Amino acid sequence: MVDMKRDRPHLHMEGGGEKELYTSPKRGDSGLPPARVRAAHARKLEHAIGNALSEARRKLEARDETIAEGERGFYLEFEIPTAERTALDRLENKPKSIELVAVRLPEDEGELISATVFVPEKSADFFVKKIEAYRDEDTRTGKPKNEALVARIEDIHLAALRSLFTDDMTLFPQAGRQAWWEVWLREDRLGTFRTVAERLNVVLKEHIISFPERDVVLVLANESTMVRLVGNTDAIAELRIAKDTPSLFLEMGAVEQVEWAADLAERVNPPSILAPAVCVLDSGTTQGHVLIAPGLDPADQHAYDNSWGVGDSAFWNGHGTAMAGVALYGDLEAALSGNAVINLQHRLESVKILSPRDQNDPELYGAITEVGITKAEACAPRRRRVFCMAVTSDIGLGRGRPSSWSAAIDQLCYGNGIHRRLIVLAAGNLRGDIVAAEYPDANDLAEVESPAQAWNALVVGAYTDKITITHPDYADWEALAPAGDLAPTSRTSGIWDRQWPIRPDVVFEGGNLAYDGVNPASAIDDLQLITTHFRPNARLFDVFGDTSAATALAANLSAGIIAARPELWPETVRGLVVHSAEWTPAMQSRFNAATNQTQKMAMLRRYGWGVPDLGRALMSALNDATLMVEDALLPFRKDGSNIKTRDMNLHHLPWPRDELLALGDQDVELRVTLSYFVEPNPGERGWTRRHRYASHALRFAVKRSLESLQQFRTRINKAAEAEEVGTMGSASGGDNWVLGSIRDRGSIHSDVWRGSAAALAERDAVGVFPVSGWWKEKPGLQRWERSVRYALLVSIRAPGAEIDLYTAIANKLAVAVPAS
Predict the structure, then answer these.
(1) Residues 489-514, buried b or exposed e (16+ Cβ, 10 A)?
(2) Pairing relation of β-strands 347-352 and 301-303?
(3) Residue 464 pLDDT more than 80?
(4) What residues contact 597, with CB distance under 8 A and at least 6 apart?
(5) Could you report the per-residue pLDDT of 124-146, keeping only the tens digit for each?
(6) What pLDDT, on a 0 to 100 scale, did the predictor assign at position 803?
(7) Residue 433: enclosing H or E segment and its boundaries?
(8) φ, ψ dihedrals at 46, nearest 5°
(9) Distance separating alpha carbons of residues 585 and 596, to the nearest angstrom
């Protein structure tokens, strides 16, 4: 760092060895004639700006124009005494497009202000001319020209990255360490910045905050990447650290917490009487919390055992109230930090399924869960809801084999084919010490806990974007998981036997751990979420994380979909959550490194289909280039004494053929998601062909470019026959699918095909067809004649194409996509 204290006179060396003592003209009387002081100050600034401009030109010449975007220019940093801050306004010049972008005030009054200015290349000589005029010319009143600016400048440098950093310098990321940066952008330059970020493969959060003259985006990068961003665009005004500050709220005193909570409560509009609900199955909920009360009616609190009461329990550390806060608001930090009105679109229900005195017998949890669900439904039978449960057990795990509890969950979701339910479950957390050197291998070896073996539930793991540590007590600690990767506590299905479902289905934010390089990792407040505390008389906020927080976030998002489209089936809502999920760049890099299907399967069993997004889910349901089908088929038929599979449903896709052909070889993506529920048969009898767990299975296949409809039907029939003899995924392998045959596990399947737009134009049909299950193998149980329903989501994306695919599809789609 340059020492910015300039209280003493400076010694300036001239060419002939003569030494001239001077101070800047506005810093006191040096005893020298004013003309000599003026000339010396001008020479000093001319020398400084000359060096800065030479270095700026060198960097501009080296700029990679294949990456760069926006007006060519550079940043200059000016040092000005604190007492002369009025000169800051004079650093700008709108006609020359010179803009003051960032000012860093000193900690002590006697130090210098650092002011950073963006200067277009075409205006590079602007300040040189200002200084020359100050040196050589006087105004009509006899004062030096530009004295109000030039005389107040102590020094000029070519700005470095730190020149744009307006936060506390102790927060500046260490060399090589990635961090989330708040990037404050100059007016109307968001598109320019995104273009350069995309060319540099820099991760940006989708959401932005807009102010007059500034847009704020979150960027994941290290220092060297930020230098490249600054050097290749004219967009950046200032930089700050994106502060996840749970510790700010958690370390508040009781009175201050009350004030913050009261402010939020005043901005909350309760949900309507017709709003859907998130029903939290846990340790009860403290309804009297000022932030819980708007969304939870006392009549919607229940308990498995009425003698337990419905309030939360100290035995479980208020876990149910913590779940409720996240299920209602998401991460409470965002709601507390903002000032917008919050219109709650869903309400809460609470069912206490955990004894307030001790642990329940794990063998009874299936029955306890069922009783809890039926109690909530009996109270409000017509209400749409999503059930949310983060209670798990590590007893009797068997590499994916169903338990009585998970089978009960499947039965509750299936609802005897009549009353289907959406249930969101946690994948479970690692127990004991977590050692940094063992991440993420330890996660891959820690199998998902019961009841997350369930096929029909939406099973949620945890990832994290929380890597910023601001608390001074942990200044030398590091976040364990990289941004966008698996949370250190999240379990996976990496060691499960191949026939069992992919778990988790999706991942949500679950917080991170920090480590000091010696001891096991710890959960610190900076890397966790904020939620509601179960004892509001003592404190209002609590720290929360792991797959419990992730599961509550998943329920929150699912309820958001139901609120927007209350007529959708539970299978469809689950399908939309998965269909909206994407792998983060950190996850995608792991998939890209996978060289075979076995390695891809390992990644899929770690991350599921990635991180969902409510905006993408609702766009898929409302106005994206996505087709959503809710349909049914009869999977089996009776032929004499034998049960055989029936024909498939064939859905014709109304692709905008002309528009796609016009795009030619441009890359496009086709994504297909198929979601359905099975009836479980969990008796442990070896899981042979006759003793299958699932009642039936469905598969999807997409017509290929050079394939006729008849050839397509023939291929699918052969694929169904092949699965009868144990050949998995013969209809889905190869053909440019990202996952191919490994997608065909469980009762939800999603995959992405990549190819040319012209090839996609010919892929205009998708078939949904049945494969065998115990309904077929056990005709005596009279299930073979049952209909099964499914949700099918098909979307196309043409990144970078200047074409409105949605409108083109909508114009062709006058009615729902038919099945034949």
Answers:
(1) bbbbbbebeeebbbbbbbbbbbbbbb
(2) parallel
(3) yes
(4) 740, 741, 742
(5) 999 999 999 999 999 998 899 99
(6) 64
(7) none
(8) -65, -40
(9) 19
d(CA 484, CA 468): 13
**What pLDDT does 23 receive?**
46
Q: Give the amino acid at 570.
A: P
**Mean pLDDT over residues 2-16, rounded?**
34
Whether cis (ω within 30° of 0) applies to the bond prior to 451 is yes
Mean pLDDT over 686-691 rounds to: 56
Helix boundaries (H) for 734-790: 757-762, 774-777
pLDDT confidence of residue 423: 98
Q: How many other CB atoms are there within 10 angstroms of residue 14's CB atom?
A: 10
Mean local confidence (pLDDT), 659-675: 90
- HEC per residue, 197-232: HHHCCCEECCCCEEECCEEEEEEEECHHHHHHHHHC
Output DSSP code: residue 727.
-
> Is residue 712 helix, strand or coil?
helix
pLDDT band, residue 4 (cuts 50/70/90): very low
CB 527 within 8 A of CB 469: yes
Q: Regarding beta strands 277-282 and 458-464, do their DSSP bridges make them parallel or antiparallel, or are they unpaired?
A: unpaired
Any idea what DSSP says for residue 339? -
Question: b or e along 168-182 (b: 16 or more beta carbons within 10 Å of the residue's beta carbon)?
Answer: eeeeebeeeebbbbb
How far apart CA 370 and CA 357 sit, in angstroms, is: 21
Contact by Cβ (8 Å): 52, 156: yes
Q: Which helix (H) or strand (E) holds 571?
A: helix 570-579
Which pairs with CB-CB distance under 8 Å and at least 24 residues apart come from 87-90? 87/148, 87/149, 87/152, 87/153, 88/113, 88/115, 90/148, 90/149
pTM for this prediction:
0.87
Strands (E), 685-802: 697-702, 748-756, 765-771, 788-797
DSSP string, 530-552: EEE-S-TTT-SEEEE-HHHHHHH
Nearest CA among 343, 425, 356 for reference residue 392: 425
**Among 734, 709, 818, 718, which Cα is nearest to 769's?**
718
The percentage of the chain sitting over the pLDDT mark of 90, rounded to a whole number, equals 65
Nearest alpha-carbon partner for 67 in 194, 223, 199: 199
Give the pLDDT score at 187. Answer: 92
Taking the C-alpha atoms of residue 48 and residue 42, their distance in angstroms, rounded to an integer, is 10
The two structure tokens encoding residue 337: 């930090």
Question: What pLDDT, on a 0 to 100 scale, did the predictor assign at position 175?
Answer: 86
**Residue-wise pLDDT tens digits, 345-354:** 999 999 999 9
Give the C-alpha separation, 658 to 805, whole Å: 11
358 pLDDT higher than 50: yes
- Is residue 39 within a helix (H) or strand (E), and if so which, with residue range? helix 34-61
- To the nearest 10°, the Cα dihedral for 536, 540, 546, 549? 90
Structure tokens at 284: 């009860």
List Cβ neighbours of 437 (8 Å cut-off, separation of 6 or more). Answer: none
Tokens of 679: 């009836």
Contact 502/605 with Cβ under 8 angstroms? Answer: yes
pLDDT band at 22 (very low <50, low <70, confident <90, very high): very low
Is-contact 287 301, C-beta < 8 A? yes
Q: How many CB atoms lie within 10 A of CB 611?
A: 20
pLDDT value at residue 11: 30
Are 5 and 111 spatial neighbours (Cβ–Cβ below 8 Å)? yes
Task: Judge contact between 230 and 75, C-beta under 8 A.
Answer: yes
Per-residue pLDDT, averaged over 11-18, amounts to 34
Cα separation of 746 and 406, whole Å?
13
Question: How confident is the model over 687-703, as a mean pLDDT?
Answer: 81
Alpha helices for 85-174 (secondary structure H): 126-136, 147-150
